[in-house]
């Protein structure tokens, strides 16, 4: 057996990231795969065309470029199959559309990404799906919320912006007893820090825009399914016609090769900043699962192998009237942390979180909630930037 053919299951995560999904000697030894720009694929004869008797038939159904990335993700996720779509939001919505029909009941975690909630409350409801939100801390008690028509449970752990943890195996076990599909947005952890399919989840969703791409310049999402749910996902995605662009796929695959070492830096810097924030008089509370003080820390420590670079904290204010003024002064006082949405790239970012759309969890933490994406800058420089911003907030 040659070196390139050796099984990779016993290799370390960074080694697997470097090698996964592509054999250079399939393409004359070039380390990176070719970028195939295509729509039409030619057939050698009419019979092959009539029977779809070749690997590639049309570019929406796959190319050598997309196969390189999906094969890599399948290996990392332990999935039967993966489809690529143009954004992380599309990855969640395509998964929900794949398994839900009019009259079905769906349980959605209340800490879900806000744009997914908007999709559920508008498109899914419009299509006749009954949507109900649940507390992320519910665990096995979620069984009390099941109805005869409950067909899907959607998880996001940690939750958006406030990072609530979920007892994933307990929820998945309940859903399995009721023959419901379990989908999970695992963008925060990536399959390096948590593998949903190993904990009973059927469909693992990633916004590849974030850590896999890693450079704030690509939009892409992946949906990875186990054997039980793969066929239906593949059929739904084919019917919807979603596919990712070849150059974006190539950029994500290239980013994937360094994701492990980048996550190590994101994690170490975020933990250092979270610990520093806890000691600041201007901070009421820090929300980061890797902190022992965090409510869901024990679940995180039980199931997860690491923590990524995104966290939130509650800014102390004298009262409601000063909250907006102080939060804006804090954000405007930052110079290294850019003000922008998304996360997972190399630059640190900050924004104020809006929780007004929640229906189960608290809508307020008693002060402005600031979310930080901790990037790859030197951590001492980032802490000094935060110090200056706190000083600016004091004078507001």
From TrEMBL:
It catalyses: L,L-cystathionine + H2O = L-homocysteine + pyruvate + NH4(+). InterPro entries: Cys/Met-Metab_PyrdxlP-dep_enz, Cys_b_lyase_bac, PyrdxlP-dep_Trfase, PyrdxlP-dep_Trfase_major, PyrdxlP-dep_Trfase_small. Keywords: Lyase, Pyridoxal phosphate. Its cofactor is pyridoxal 5'-phosphate. The modification N6-(pyridoxal phosphate)lysine is found at residue 210. Belongs to the trans-sulfuration enzymes family. This is Cystathionine beta-lyase. The lineage of its organism: Bacteria, Pseudomonadati, Pseudomonadota, Alphaproteobacteria, Hyphomicrobiales.
């Amino acid at each position: 057996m040659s070196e390139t053919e050796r099984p990779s299951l016993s290799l370390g995560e960074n080694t697997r990231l470097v090698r996964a999904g592509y054999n250079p000697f399939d393409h004359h030894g070039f380390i990176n795969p070719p970028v195939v720009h295509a729509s039409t694929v030619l057939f050698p004869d009419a019979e092959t065309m009539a029977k779809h008797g070749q690997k590639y038939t049309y570019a929406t159904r796959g190319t050598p470029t997309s196969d390189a990335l999906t094969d890599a993700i399948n290996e990392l996720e332990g999935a039967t199959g993966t489809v690529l779509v143009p954004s992380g939001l599309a990855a969640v919505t395509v998964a929900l559309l794949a398994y839900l029909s009019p009259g079905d009941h769906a349980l959605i975690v209340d800490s879900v990404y806000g744009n997914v909630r908007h999709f559920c409350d508008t498109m899914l409801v419009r299509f006749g799906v009954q949507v109900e939100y649940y507390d992320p801390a519910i665990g096995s008690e979620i069984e009390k919320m099941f109805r005869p028509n409950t067909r899907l449970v959607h998880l996001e752990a940690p939750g958006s912006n406030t990072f609530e943890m979920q007892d994933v195996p307990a929820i998945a076990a309940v859903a399995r007893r009721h023959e419901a599909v379990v989908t999970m947005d695992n963008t925060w952890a990536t399959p390096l820090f948590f593998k949903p399919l190993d904990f009973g989840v059927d469909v693992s969703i990633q916004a590849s825009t974030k850590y896999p791409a890693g450079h704030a310049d690509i939009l892409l999402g992946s949906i990875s399914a186990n054997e039980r749910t793969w066929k239906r996902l593949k059929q739904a995605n084919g019917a919807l016609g979603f596919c990712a662009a070849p150059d974006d796929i190539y950029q994500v695959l290239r980013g994937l090769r360094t994701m492990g070492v980048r996550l190590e830096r994101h994690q170490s810097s975020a933990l250092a900043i979270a610990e520093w924030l806890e000691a600041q008089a201007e901070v009421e509370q820090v929300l980061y699962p890797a902190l022992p003080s965090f409510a869901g820390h024990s679940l995180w420590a039980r199931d997860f192998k690491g923590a990524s670079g995104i966290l939130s904290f509650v800014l102390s204010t004298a009262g409601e009237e000063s909250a907006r003024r102080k939060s804006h002064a804090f954000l405007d006082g930052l110079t290294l942390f850019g003000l922008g949405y998304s996360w997972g790239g190399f630059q640190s970012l900050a924004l104020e979180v809006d929780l007004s759309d929640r229906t189960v969890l608290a809508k307020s933490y008693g002060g402005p909630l600031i979310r930080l994406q901790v990037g790859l800058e030197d951590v001492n420089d980032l802490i000094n930037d935060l110090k200056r911003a706190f000083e600016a907030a004091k004078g507001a």
